[in-house]
Amino acid sequence: MNDFALWPVLAGTAAFFGVGALWYGVLFSKPWQRAAGLSDAQLKSGNMALIFGLTFAFEMLIAMVLWHLIARTDPPAFVVMMMAVGFAVGVMIPAVGINYLYLRKPLAMFLIDAGHLLVGMAAMGGVFIALR
């Protein structure tokens, strides 16, 4: 297994991005919008191409790091999932939580965003298992 493989990284990124599309577009769009305190006009005023492009780029960076760790250690499938979910639970979610504490963001927003990170990383881990 190479330290970097484009197709698994792109597929893992797409899985994470797809979870985000469902999470924020279908499942939790209105609750998240209320928790964030954003009006419909504010949401429409953003440069969505830039927002989606940077989201994909950041998620690809996450995928590259996770793929590199998996490639260097060649763990069994259950450990790949532990790494993916563990990264979400042990690094990503606490980092967001710390920021939200200082930004005084509501618990509902944190829970929605934390759930996205957890499910997105699990989806990425599942893709990586399938494509190893």
TrEMBL record:
Alphabetical UniProt keywords: Membrane, Transmembrane, Transmembrane helix
TM regions (residue ranges): 6-28, 49-71, 77-103, 110-131
Top-rank taxon: Bacteria
InterPro entries hit by this protein: DUF1761
Protein name: DUF1761 domain-containing protein
Source organism per UniProt: Erythrobacter sanguineus
Species classification: Bacteria, Pseudomonadati, Pseudomonadota, Alphaproteobacteria, Sphingomonadales
